[in-house]
Amino acid sequence: MIEKRDFYINGGWTAPAEARDCEVIDPSTEEACAVISLGDQADTDAAVAAAKAAFEGWAATPPAERLRLVKGILAQYEARKEEMAQAISLEMGAPIDLARNSQAPCLPWHLTNFLKAFEEIEWVRPLGPHAPNDRIALEPIGVVGLITPWNWPMNQVTLKVIPALLAGCTCVLKPSEEAPLSSLLFAEFVHDAGLPAGVFNLVNGDGAGVGTQLSLAPGCRDDLLHRLDPRGPRDLEGCGRVAQARDAGARRQGREPDLRRCRRARGRAGREALFQQLGPELQRPDPDAGRAATL
């Protein structure tokens, strides 16, 4: 039986804080094919802390360098795509032809399209002729918590992780405990592509455990932990509590809650780094002469 008990945290494979084995069932045989660990609060906290520590450096990394490193993930897939197909076939119970021809290729398909779109993004651009001293800067939102389902696992993981990394966000991924093998292999791709420690982290767990912990993640509120597509009632319950707390805080300040601000980029340091990276022609002038508009 395959044993994959470790989590990928801060650039390395880490044993769980407490042993909690979980069998992965091959649906085609209804028998256990692998064993993983279910994380607990200590594991989630370690992954979030690693992502927070890595965020400032990753956000300030030149877009061209982020592009180069993410392209390395694609290169890893191309070198090991049969392993990915076999992992998906095992965890999904899918026929190997389907895993090879439809499931695994979701990764290069989406990743390639994200790379094309990335090259057309103007990270810092003039606001317009009416405001020649102002600039619009696109910035990463912070640490993102990514919770993915069991069906079409590489489709879901690629659609969440790749754009987050390209945008300069750091990640904590909790894949489905029912189909975790392909995500663990994806973590190997990220590692071998050379992404800095803490930029991508993976903790296995269920919705009641790591899912809820990642949805709440109080240590990341200052960095706007962005909850994408939580799965399971416990995950949704946790997200609901966060939303209620934010709404209450907004009303105490005499304003209506603004969910759109969760999508805005933050961080003066990251913005200034972008101006410096992209050349003097786009550097922001003296603050007294204008102000930067932030999306």
Strand order of the largest sheet: 10-9-8-11
Percent strand: 15-25%
* Unreliable spans: 221-252, 255-270, 280-295
Task: Note the run of SSEs as H and E.
Answer: EEEEEHHHHEEEHEHEHEHHE
What value does the Rg take, in angstroms?
20 Å
Proportion of helical residues: 40-55%
Number of helices: 9
Q: Which structural class do you get from the secondary structure elements?
A: alpha/beta
Structure description:
The protein has 295 residues and is α/β, with parallel strands linked by helices. The strands form four sheets. Strands 10-9-8-11 form a four-stranded parallel beta sheet, sandwiched between helices. A hairpin with a 2-residue loop joins strand 2 and strand 3. The longest helix is centred in the N-terminal third of the chain and has 30 residues. The radius of gyration is 20 Å and the shape is globular.
In short:
With 295 residues, the chain is of the alpha/beta class. The chain contains nine helices and twelve strands.
Please render the helix and strand layout as text.
Blueprint: E1 2-4, E2 7-9, E3 12-14, E4 21-26, E5 31-37, H1 41-59, H2 63-92, H3 96-103, H4 106-118, E6 124-126, E7 135-137, E8 143-147, H5 153-167, E9 170-174, H6 181-193, E10 200-202, H7 207-216, E11 226-228, H8 233-252, H9 268-277, E12 293-294
Parallel strand pairs: 1-5, 7-12, 8-9, 8-11, 9-10
Antiparallel strand pairs: 2-3, 4-5, 6-7
Structural descriptors:
295 residues, alpha/beta, four-stranded parallel β-sheet, three-stranded mixed β-sheet, 47% helix, globular
